[in-house]
Amino acid sequence: MPRFFISSQTIVQDRAQLSGAEFHHLRHVLRLGRGARVTLYDERGVTYHGEILHIASAHAEVGITEHAPPATPAFHFTLAQGTLKGRKMDLVIEKAAELGVHAIAPFVSAFTVARIPDSKRAERLARWQHIARAAAKQSGSPPPEIRPPQSFPELLHSVPAPSGKLIFSERERTLHLREFAQNSTQFEALHVLVGPEGGFAPEEIEQAEAARFVSVSLGAAVLRAETASITAVALCQFLWRDIRSPLP
């Protein structure tokens, strides 16, 4: 069944209005008409099933017949990613959204190459939000929150104290993620830090550890930053997510 993202604010009682890019996809790409059955989902992860009641020039009205609340996640998962150059950052956001992270927090650190001018931040954030929404739509996951880029110290300060905290470092030689997982309990929230192309500076590792982050390794191979991020997210989901409670 075709699946479309909709803001919860556009739903009134048992009616939803689909407009913008999602309406264009419904009308001009899929060429759906009155009576077609569709699935909608909103920013909270609520899924709605319904039928197209009316199509106007710029919107479609959908009658909602049933809805399902979002599945309760095993933990709230945040990927903190050092900003990457060009399409690399787009790729990380796309794949992290597909894998079901709940938030992506870009940051700028000592070895960051891709520094975003203030004049471009709103445009870049809107682009990332669009990519994340499209990826979540494909996978059936709720779209993640994309936070505005911040400095590395600001990021560390923003992480709640009770969270599980991991920083992936190619300099870590003692503790592998697998070994950490063997001795860890289930998290209510997990924050994962992955650096930019140049990784983390030694003093940044020290700052993170002082903020109660645990430095872990993905293995002996030195991975590209985008590969490390996608691998880290997939492994953390595999190790700690309750796969018996799939998303709607």
A few lines on this structure:
With 248 residues, the chain is of the alpha/beta class. The protein is built from seven helices and 13 strands. The protein has two domains: 3-68, Ribosomal Protein L25, Chain P, CATH 2.40.240; 76-240, 3-Layer(aba) Sandwich (Alpha/beta knot).
Record the SSE blueprint.
Blueprint: E1 3-5, E2 11-12, E3 15-19, H1 20-29, E4 37-41, E5 47-55, E6 59-68, E7 76-82, H2 87-98, E8 103-108, H3 121-139, E9 145-146, E10 150-151, H4 152-158, E11 164-168, H5 177-182, E12 189-194, H6 202-210, E13 214-216, H7 225-240
Helix pairs in contact: 2-3, 2-7
Plain-language structure description:
This protein has 248 residues and is α/β, with parallel strands linked by helices. The chain has two domains: 3-68, Beta Barrel (Ribosomal Protein L25, Chain P); 76-240, Alpha/beta knot (3-Layer(aba) Sandwich). It has helices at residues 20-29, 87-98, 121-139, 152-158, 177-182, 202-210, 225-240; strands at residues 3-5, 11-12, 15-19, 37-41, 47-55, 59-68, 76-82, 103-108, 145-146, 150-151, 164-168, 189-194, 214-216. Strands 7, 8, 9, 10, 11, 12 and 13 form a seven-stranded parallel beta sheet that branches. Helix 2 (87-98) packs parallel to helix 3 and helix 2 packs parallel to helix 7. The longest helix is centred in the middle third of the chain and has 19 residues, at 121-139. It is elongated and about 60 Å long. Residues 243-248 have low confidence and may be disordered.
